[in-house]
């Protein structure tokens, strides 16, 4: 235990147990300086003033009775928070340091660099950075402080910042006595981040609570703009379990942020605009990302809890530093993910109906948008109402309480993305944009079966938490359908057996946006598209590397969310009209009257018109498996019409680093063409498994365009012709010891269909995350009935 009666103490002599003396922030810095050097973690040296020093300052300036009087006025309502905060801060700023305290601060400062060091002066409250309460950001920090006079002035301002309006309000809400909390000041050598970059990292995924990822944010210059949320930083996500394997580079996400401003040294600091080159470039290289991630893991392991860490890079030396570490509190307090069921107890008049997506209920104000260009008009928590969505709408969809579209079915973009985001949606409502008006409060209910309902006003909703511990075990594997990497993290707590369908085309559409052939042959792309592609790929030396890197990371993120369980990734299955809509795609795609039955799936992969694009897909999967380390990835080939076509595809895959059986690589085939059933034994000789696509198999068995509104009443996965084919492929595949799963929508919507699949002996069923628990229960009941 440090000397509680000292005015100042060296950081290196402090430990976590000294929080009452120097506050959580400074105690943590000392802990890392003393205990984590062996892990290679570098922390700038310095010293801290003590809580005793703060109380001496208060006593010497006779501030306690004046502060208590001011707080009393606030509690009686005699003055506003702003008035009282300003008055107390002014008292502190007019105070004088006791000579012994001033001498101690100046003496320790002189030891840093003959009294001329540039230092960071940071506040550290004694009730700050506790596991159950985070005061982070409540007090002030001052950067690039140089000289004794400037240092003492910064220290005085730190003391005053203990009474910012937000700090007073926060202490009141947390039940802390304002004068029981003391303030320590940390004085550290400044890291020349103005010549490099800085940021924040968490040893846990902050949005989902996924514990096996490190999240790193980075921007140019000093880290204050990142901490304040004033700049759009680069973002990196790293898979922790592979960090001890030197041969791997387990970075599962790298995103270039806008980084339009940075803070640099001046007198003391100033904010400037970044140049276009800085905006386009990554702040950190791969080695630096991995070093920081390893440090985050070491710090988390030492403290025994998820941590929120600030880091900095010195532009003169290239050295990385940790400048702060505190307990992460948001996910720690949230605990396990709450899965809920919903029931309406009362409701207003029915306004609109459509197909329900999900099983939740949401209430909010309508925000009706005609175009994604109106994104700035959308407010978080509102109900998005529009005609239809495409990938450009995803940023809005993430903020929505619910989504309602005029058009679209259960396989539409709005439906698929809403499921993965866990946002209730009603699609195909027909007249929603005509009936619903912006500002109108509505209740969107997807908890009443296949139909979704929009009611006027705020309904009374009853929710029930679902206990994941009560999910039954089953012989039949129940897996997840996923495409959005960000959404994959949200569902990591579900006890699924892996991912039965990860749609590559959704990653391409959302994260890449460019036709792969346009990256390979820019000379065939129009000037406007070339400029847009150049902007998207600016952070990469080669445009094709942008495609490979982004796709590999998107796939790896989904694989990481379920590792080591299998994640079946379907190679791209765009139709020609959808490929044409990708940036630069029109010059590479033919016009087809019925793209659903045209040049899609396997037939593209060996064709001269797309072979090189497919090669980029293969290289991305190879990188995700071999370089990032996700060998739980299984490759699946869609719409493979003949065994001969299968041979040609496997040959092209092998030429691009994906050899079936090598390093455990399994290759599956979609069973969605009747020929896959008729020649099941021949396909089983070439593939390790079948995955039944019930939508396409129904379409091609019954001769019905699955997108036809007029024929929708005939489209039925439970039609005897379809179920007969499903029984046949399961039986025939099993004679070859080949697995069969189903990844269509039907089991999520129709319990009887799920029961049929179990009775037919299916090996796995892959469903939407929001349907997982219900389907798991249905499967367990069916297995008991058949046993």
If you had to describe this structure to a student in words, what would you say it looks like?
The protein is of the alpha/beta class. Helix content is 38%, strand content 21%. It has an 8-stranded parallel β-barrel, surrounded by 5 helices. Strand 20 (441-445) and strand 21 form a beta hairpin. Helix 3 (64-76) packs antiparallel against helix 4 (81-93), helix 4 (81-93) runs antiparallel to helix 6 (148-160) and helix 16 (504-512) crosses helix 19. Mean pLDDT is 91; it is low at 132-136.
Strand content: 15-25%
Query: Helicity, in percent?
Result: 25-40%
Output the strand order for the largest sheet: 23-24-25-26-27-28-29-30
By DSSP, the count of extended strands is 30
State the major sheet. Answer: 8 strands, parallel, barrel
Oligomer: single chain
Indicate the topology.
Layout: E1 8-10, H1 19-35, E2 46-49, H2 51-60, H3 64-76, H4 81-93, H5 99-113, E3 118-125, E4 141-146, H6 148-160, H7 165-174, E5 183-189, E6 197-202, E7 213-220, H8 224-228, E8 234-239, E9 251-255, E10 261-265, E11 269-273, H9 276-280, H10 286-303, E12 307-313, E13 320-327, H11 330-334, E14 339-346, E15 350-357, E16 361-368, E17 383-386, H12 394-399, E18 402-405, H13 413-421, E19 425-427, H14 432-435, E20 441-445, E21 451-456, E22 460-466, E23 477-482, H15 485-490, E24 499-503, H16 504-512, H17 516-520, H18 527-536, H19 543-562, E25 567-570, H20 576-580, H21 602-605, H22 611-627, E26 633-637, H23 643-655, E27 667-671, H24 674-678, H25 680-684, E28 689-692, H26 694-702, H27 720-735, E29 739-742, H28 746-749, H29 751-760, E30 764-767, H30 772-786
Parallel strand pairs: 16-17, 17-18, 18-19, 23-24, 23-30, 24-25, 25-26, 26-27, 27-28, 28-29, 29-30
Antiparallel strand pairs: 1-2, 2-5, 3-4, 3-5, 6-7, 6-12, 7-8, 8-9, 10-11, 12-13, 14-22, 15-19, 15-21, 16-20, 20-21
């Amino acid at each position: 235990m440090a000397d509680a009666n000292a005015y100042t103490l060296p950081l290196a002599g402090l430990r976590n147990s000294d929080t009452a003396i120097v506050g959580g922030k400074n105690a943590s810095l000392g802990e890392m300086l003393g205990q984590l050097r062996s892990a290679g973690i570098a922390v700038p040296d310095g010293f801290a003033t003590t809580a005793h020093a703060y109380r001496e300052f208060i006593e010497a300036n006779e501030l306690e009775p004046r502060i208590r009087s001011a707080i009393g006025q606030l509690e009686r309502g005699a003055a506003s928070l702003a008035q009282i905060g300003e008055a107390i801060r002014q008292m502190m700023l007019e105070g004088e340091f006791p000579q012994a305290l001033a001498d101690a601060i100046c003496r320790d400062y002189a030891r840093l660099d003959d009294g001329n060091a540039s230092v960071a002066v940071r506040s550290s409250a004694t009730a700050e950075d506790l596991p159950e309460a985070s005061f982070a950001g409540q007090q002030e920090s001052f950067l690039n402080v140089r000289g004794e006079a400037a240092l003492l002035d910064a220290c005085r301002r730190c003391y005053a910042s203990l009474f910012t309006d937000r700090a007073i309000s926060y202490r009141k809400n947390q039940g802390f006595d304002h004068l029981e909390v003391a303030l320590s000041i940390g004085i550290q050598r400044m890291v020349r981040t103005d010549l490099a970059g800085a940021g924040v990292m968490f040893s846990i995924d902050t949005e989902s609570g996924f514990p096996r990822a490190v999240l790193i944010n980075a921007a140019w210059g000093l880290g204050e703009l990142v901490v304040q949320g004033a700049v759009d930083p680069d973002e990196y996500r790293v898979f922790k379990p592979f960090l001890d394997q030197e041969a791997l580079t387990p970075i599962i996400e790298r995103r270039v942020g806008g980084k339009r401003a940075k803070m640099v040294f001046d007198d003391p600091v100033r904010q400037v605009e970044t140049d276009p080159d800085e905006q386009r470039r990554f702040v950190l290289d791969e080695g630096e990302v991995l070093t920081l991630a390893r440090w985050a893991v070491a710090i988390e392991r030492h403290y025994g809890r998820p941590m929120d860490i600030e880091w900095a890079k010195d532009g003169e030396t290239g050295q990385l530093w940790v400048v702060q570490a505190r307990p992460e509190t948001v996910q720690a307090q949230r605990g396990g993910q709450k899965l809920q069921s919903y029931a309406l107890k009362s409701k207003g008049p029915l306004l609109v109906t459509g197909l329900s997506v999900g099983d939740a209920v949401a209430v909010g104000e309508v925000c009706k948008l005609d175009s994604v260009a109106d994104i700035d008009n959308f407010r978080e928590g509102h109900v998005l109402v529009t005609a239809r969505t495409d990938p450009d709408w995803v940023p809005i969809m993430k903020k929505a309480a619910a989504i309602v579209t005029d058009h679209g079915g259960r396989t539409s973009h709005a439906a698929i993305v809403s499921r993965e985001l866990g946002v209730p949606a009603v699609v195909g409502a027909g007249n929603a944009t005509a009936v619903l008006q912006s500002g109108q409060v509505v209740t969107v209910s997807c908890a009443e079966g296949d139909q979704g309902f929009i009611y006027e006003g705020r309904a009374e909703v009853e929710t029930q938490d679902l206990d994941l511990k009560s999910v039954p075990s089953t012989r039949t594997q129940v897996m997840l359908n996923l495409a959005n990497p960000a959404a994959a993290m949200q569902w990591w707590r579900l006890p699924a057996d892996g991912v039965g369908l990860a749609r590559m085309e959704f990653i391409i559409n959302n994260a890449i946006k460019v036709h792969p052939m346009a990256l390979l042959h820019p000379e065939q792309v129009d000037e406007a598209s070339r400029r847009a592609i150049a902007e998207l790929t600016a952070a990469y030396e080669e445009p094709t590397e942008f495609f490979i890197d982004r796709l590999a990371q998107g796939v790896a993120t989904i694989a990481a969310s379920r590792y080591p369980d299998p994640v079946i990734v379907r190679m791209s299955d765009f139709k020609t009209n959808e490929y044409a809509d990708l940036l630069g795609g029109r010059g590479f795609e033919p016009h087809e009257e019925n793209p659903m039955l045209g040049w899609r799936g396997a037939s593209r992969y060996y064709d001269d018109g797309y072979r090189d694009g497919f090669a980029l897909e293969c290289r991305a999967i190879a990188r995700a498996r071999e370089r990032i380390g996700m060998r739980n990835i299984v490759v699946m080939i869609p719409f493979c019409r003949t065994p001969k076509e299968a041979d040609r595809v496997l040959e092209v895959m092998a030429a691009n680093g994906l050899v079936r059986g090598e390093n455990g690589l399994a290759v599956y085939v979609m069973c969605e063409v009747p020929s896959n059933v008729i020649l099941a034994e021949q396909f089983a000789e070439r593939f390790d498994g079948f995955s039944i696509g019930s939508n396409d198999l129904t379409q091609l068995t019954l001769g019905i365009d699955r997108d036809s509104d007029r024929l929708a009443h005939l489209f039925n996965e439970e039609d005897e012709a379809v179920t007969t084919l499903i029984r046949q492929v399961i039986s025939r595949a099993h004679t070859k010891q080949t697995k069969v799963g189903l990844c269509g929508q039907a089991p999520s919507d129709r319990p009887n269909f799920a029961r049929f699949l179990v009775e037919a002996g299916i090996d796995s069923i892959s469903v939407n995350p929001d349907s997982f628990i219900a389907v798991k229960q249905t499967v367990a009941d069916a297995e008991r009935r058949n046993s």
